[in-house]
Amino acid sequence: MARKISFDAPDTVASDFGEESHPTSLQRTRPLLGIERAIRQPSAVGAISQSLGGLSEKVKRAEQIEQKLIEGQVIVELAPELIDHSIVPDRMEATEAQNAEFRELIRQHGQNVPILVRPHPSNSERYQVAFGHRRLRAARELGIKVRAVVRALTDEELVVAQGQENSGRTDLTFIERARFAARLEDRKFSREIIMSALNVDKAALSRLISTATRIPPAVIEAIGPAPAFGRVRWQELTDLLEEDGNRARALSLVAETGFAALDTDARFERLVRSLRSKPQRARAEPWVSDDGTHAARVSRSGRRLTLMFDDRVAPRFGDFVQEKLRALYAQYKAANPSG
């Protein structure tokens, strides 16, 4: 006979104000499974059917973590300076305007949803956040305590809780999810754990990790989260970077003055548009001396100027110029001290 599977919360839990309340079945949610609507208490028939049908390992793992969050849930107030970041960052830095807007929201309405932390594994006097980084930052900047649930979590449980909470709120952009997946793999977490954390199947996870590893980290950081663009557009950028010379071009483009001043979506568009257009091959123009000798050729491409000397036309002229370069550079610096 099938055994009844119950995910019921305890009979009493502490409310935000320290009083005991008796939650009904309509009050419970499953944030780690990405379900925001209320969950009805399972009947005996429903539980047996669920048991017979079987749950995927991914859902089982998320429910195990969620149950640990439900049991004995007590919300405490902690000093933000006692809480460190997660072991694997998942989101990119928001703009100052976004941070200010979120901070003002917390200031006016308070922190309605607690963050999740664990005791720091190497410092008994500190904590480590699983999710709620923005709320933690806002509390730190406002100089107030942060409301938190403290749970003893393993590394695996922490990243699953972190990923599931973000997946449930669809809070991370495609590239943030891709980078998070790649970082988890770098930390030697199993593919099963990463799939549970991001709530994706094996094929989707492979695409995420492939995108994050094929694009240079400096390019991803320079572009930022780019919330307007999903997998298809990031795959387009990945393919463009595979073309000859485009990786070097991309690194040069994102380092240009003014690129960082654009918003994150505009940065993505500019880079893709620039990589689509083929760079014009530099055309060499002859340099003619007063006596009519074509002693050299000059070509300019972007910020690069190239001099080419033909020993058949002016033997050893190139060597002569090379010997004079130090003196010429000194003259240049004297005439352009700030150049």
Any descriptors?
339 residues; alpha+beta; 5-stranded mixed sheet; 3-stranded antiparallel sheet; 13 helices
Measure the end-to-end span.
84 Å
**Which descriptor suits the 3D outline?**
elongated
Query: How would a textbook summarize the main sheet?
Result: 5 strands, mixed
Structural class: alpha+beta
Low-confidence stretches: 1-55
Number of helices: 13
Average pLDDT metric: 77
Strand content: 5-15%
Strand order within the widest sheet? 3-7-5-6-4
- Please bin the fraction of helical residues: 40-55%
Order of SSEs = EEHHEEHEEHEHHHHHHHHEEEH
* Cα gyration radius (Å): 29 Å
Would you report the number of β strands? 10
Structure description:
The chain is α+β, with helices and mostly antiparallel strands and 339 residues long. Helix content is 46%, strand content 13%. It contains 13 helices and 10 strands. The protein has helices spanning 44-53, 57-70, 96-109, 133-142, 155-168, 174-186, 191-198, 202-214, 217-223, 231-241, 246-254, 264-276, 317-335; strands at residues 13-14, 20-21, 75-78, 83-84, 115-119, 127-131, 146-150, 284-288, 294-301, 304-309. The strands form 3 sheets. Strands 3-7-5-6-4 form a 5-stranded mixed beta sheet. Strands 8-9-10 form a 3-stranded antiparallel beta sheet, with no helix packed on it. Strand 8 and strand 9 form a beta hairpin. Helix 2 crosses helix 7 and helix 11 (246-254) runs antiparallel to helix 12 (264-276). The relative contact order is 0.08.
